[in-house]
Write a structure and sequence with these properties.
Distance between the termini: 43 Å
Structural class: mainly alpha
Number of helices: 5
Number of strands: 0
Largest sheet: none
Radius of gyration: 18 Å
Helix content: over 70%
């Protein structure tokens, strides 16, 4: 019957939109974090340390963006808290989120280029890329600006009761 399959599809969409509504704030933060990840990946490539030229171009930017967004989904709670303690929590959370994003990106890029073996080995290379970029004060400044922006935006959402 055509009516029953339409009803099931509508019900399925309703459940999907209900779940998205429940996690809407987290999705917004993950998208903002993905954008920050793209900005930081560009800074890593063009302002980074001695080995920045060895990063794999577009694949690096795509996986850094996706990895940052995924890490943002999990690390949202570290951002937006008030006062000096809030900034300290955000800094610590930003470092953790950056490492987690690099691990996710390493899994994706390693899996793409080298299959399962690459997905296991490449997360360590993501961490090495972070250490290399940390040698550049300009890349670190871009990262700090992005993390500060995430913290301030999340704080604004918290004050409005959106988080």
């Amino acid at each position: 019957m055509p009516g029953s399959s339409q009803g099931a599809q509508s019900e399925g969409r309703g459940i999907m939109f209900e779940l998205l509504g429940k996690h809407r704030k987290r999705l917004v933060f993950a998208r903002l974090t993905a954008l920050a990840g793209l900005i930081v990946s560009i800074a890593m490539m063009y302002l980074g340390g001695h080995h920045a030229g060895q990063l794999p171009g577009v694949a690096f930017h795509i996986t850094a963006t996706l990895g940052a967004g995924a890490a943002g989904w999990f690390c949202m709670g570290a951002f937006g808290h008030a006062a000096t303690v809030g900034w300290m929590i955000a800094l610590t959370g930003g470092i953790g989120m950056t490492i987690l994003g690099a691990v996710f990106a390493g899994i994706m890029i390693g899996g793409y280029f080298n299959g399962l073996g690459g997905a296991i080995a490449f997360p360590a290379l993501g961490f090495i890329a972070i250490i290399d970029a940390a040698e550049s004060p300009h890349a670190v400044l871009v990262w700090l600006i992005c993390m500060s922006g995430l913290h301030l935006l999340t704080g604004s959402m918290r004050r409005r009761g959106s988080v």
